[in-house]
TrEMBL record:
Signal peptide: none annotated. It holds the Pfam family Methyltransf_2. Residues 17-106 form the O-methyltransferase dimerisation domain. GO terms for molecular function: O-methyltransferase activity; protein dimerization activity. This is Nicotinate N-methyltransferase 1. SUPFAM superfamilies: S-adenosyl-L-methionine-dependent methyltransferases, Winged helix' DNA-binding domain. Residues 131-336 form the O-methyltransferase C-terminal domain. It comes from Ziziphus jujuba. Keywords: Methyltransferase, S-adenosyl-L-methionine, Transferase. One of its GO terms (biological process) is methylation.
Amino acid sequence: MEEERSESRKQARVAMLELANMISVPMSLNAVIRLNVADAIWQGGSNAPLSASQILTRVLPSGVGDPENLQRILRMLSSHGVFAEHLNGSERTYSLTDVGKTLVTDSEGLSYAPYVLQHHQDALIRAWPLVHEAVLDPSTEPFVKVNGEPAYVYYRKKPEMNGLMQKAMSGVSVPFIKAVLEGYDGFEGVERLVDVGGSGGDCLRMILLKYPNIRQGINFDLPEVVAKAPQIPGVTHVGGDMLESIPGGDAIFMKWVLTTWTDDECKLIMQNCNKALPEGGKLIACEPVLPKETDDSHKTRAILGEDIFVMTMYRTKGKQRTEEEFRQLGLSSGFRNFRAVYIDYFHVLEFRK
Ligand SMILES: C[S@@+](CC[C@H](N)C(=O)[O-])C[C@H]1O[C@@H](n2cnc3c(N)ncnc32)[C@H](O)[C@@H]1O
């Protein structure tokens, strides 16, 4: 019995050291993205295992660089499932796992890499040591405390951050929308669709391609964001503030938006959606949905991780929500019916007026 207790205490100490050193994981991910390691290994799909020196020869034109230090990074990320390590005698080579492949740039120039980089911008990194301040003083977001203004106001003034944000959103949204178009048919019969907080308009572009019944797409986002959005056939970009008013349509789409706002702000945004819809019209919101009970699955950890990100960067009271919390928000904003369709990280939440 005493032996068992001592063994579990040893494991607990090791587990705490693992948690304390977790910061090495995102920072090393950041490093392999900056060094373009995933594309170097992928090479059009060959994914042949390469040593750190071979990778360096591919990513650095001069071929200089420290292979030993790169190998340390690759090895650590292999223990987190990003790379597969192949040991041959004393030689180590690395290929990409399915997780690592999400960092490979696809034929449309997209991947999950900009999302990782966007999360590690200086302005965001500086806010992280102040997470405890969200507990002590929830009146001001840690991001605001260190940068002097809210994140979206800050991004607005930095074209490179706006650009990275748009690429980050596209990289994650495009594969998700492909899954939505396979698993959800709620766009049938819609003629005018508004995407609220639509960023560069990727979601609308894909929805319109599948549903020619949608004759008009309105991509609604902050003026600075739509000013940078590309021309998309059938899509009109409209700049504005969703907290004030939202352009009219017979359906409204919204993805990854409610999470960043407080309950009161969500209510205001959803009431603005309600006003912009005809009787029977629907709001189609895609958001992560928090399970009621906490578990240690990748999905729950990803959602809870983003919950702390939102609390630190956007709103101390912005948050991830359960299905029941979304249902209640809909009811209190004037929607009569609600249904949820599970897709992957995100669910489709359909609110009908
Ligand atoms: C997390 S991003 C989601 C982007 C896109 N829907 C997607 O999933 O790829 C949130 C979007 O809301 C926009 N946004 C933030 N505040 C806004 C406001 N007050 N009015 C309109 N759009 C806003 C941001 O510019 C950003 O494009």
